[in-house]
UniProtKB/TrEMBL annotation:
Leader sequence residues: 1-19
Name listed for the protein in its UniProt record: Hepatocyte cell adhesion molecule-like
Domain Ig-like positions: 132-219
Cross-referenced InterPro entries: Ig-like_dom, Ig-like_dom_sf, Ig-like_fold
Keywords assigned: Signal
Length: 227
């Protein structure tokens, strides 16, 4: 009942029934397993100050932690989150340890003293990208020489995921790129080469927090004695 009453007060304040100051949402991107610290901006908490932390995948509607009269409470209100939370006794800042993709969402601190202030954080948690695979079997790649001309084609593939892109690079120059909102599909990107030289290419899978690269050597794929 106590948590329910406090949540009702939170919703009233957040909807503008009482005066409140709300900061812009700060976006944070992290990898799974990282430790994330969400700062309240408070230097030191006195006994009269109360800080509530709320969380939700889209809206911060679940009370997960609070400090009041210098006493900290962590609530088991969101699956798998309670044991990962730590609240700073002096500032009320919230630490989320060993964070997972299921803990992506909106975190909000409600800081109550003489006035109410809100701090909001949009936390996006990404898994590591997979290592790109370059297929060079006869079914998907070929080297052709005819009438003095030359062409070669290879295919690079990687597992898809949130905000994952797949790109071909020659040095620092991006040659092409692909991505897809359909996370059930595998990303695939062809590379066509029309000049025989010693260039080395890189296929890169990347998301906002990680990237992995597979190198493609032109000479290994199409040796000089190809005919």
């Amino acid at each position: 009942m106590l948590v329910s009453n406090r949540l009702s007060l939170i919703l009233l304040i957040f909807c503008g029934v009482f005066g409140a100051k709300t900061d812009e949402i700060k976006t944070i991107s992290v990898k799974t397993g990282d430790c994330v610290v969400l700062h309240t901006g408070v230097r030191e908490i006195n006994r009269e100050k109360q800080i509530l932390w709320l969380f939700g995948a889209e809206d911060p509607d679940t009370l997960i932690a609070e400090i009041y009269k210098l006493s900290i409470s962590i609530y088991d209100t969101y699956e798998g989150l309670k044991d990962r939370l730590q609240m700073d006794q002096q500032t009320g800042s919230l630490t989320v340890r060993n964070i997972t993709t299921s803990h992506s969402g909106l975190y909000m601190a409600q800081i109550m003293n003489s006035m109410t202030t809100f701090k909001r954080f949009s936390v996006m948690v990404y898994g590591p990208v997979s290592l790109p695979v370059i297929e060079s079997s006869s079914q998907v790649s070929e080297c052709l020489i005819s009438d003095g001309g030359f062409s070669s084609a290879v295919m690079c593939s990687a597992e898809n995921g949130p905000e994952v892109s797949l790109s071909w690079f020659k040095g620092k120059e991006r040659l092409n790129q692909t991505s897809s909102p359909d996370l059930s599909v595998t990303l695939s990107l062809p590379l066509e080469i029309k000049d025989r030289n010693n260039d080395v290419f890189h296929c890169v899978a990347a998301n906002p927090v990680s990237n992995k690269t597979t190198q493609f050597s032109f000479q290994e794929h199409c040796p000089l004695n190809t005919g």
